Request: fold
Amino acid sequence: MSEQVNEVQGFANANTDAPEAVGSYLESLQSQLVQVIYGASDGMHPVAGHNVATVRQTLAEAYNIPADADAYLRGSNTPLEADYVLRPGESVQFVKQAGVKG
Reply:
């Protein structure tokens, strides 16, 4: 009777380049991170290269951002235009002006 050798499946045959690929992917994500803040909600999101309007629309439900909230770069008193493109490492804060009902 001939001996049959079965190839082991699973981690034994895993691609050894996988950890490097994952590390590279995480680095690319990290290079796209922008801090987004609205009220008590804040988080880092890979939205660098996107404009303020897109970020507002994408995160409106998760952060409960009202359509009339102004967007500011952290430390700035000037509202951003909807077409302002965010850069890696920036911090954008959405603010609803005091005294505005809704």
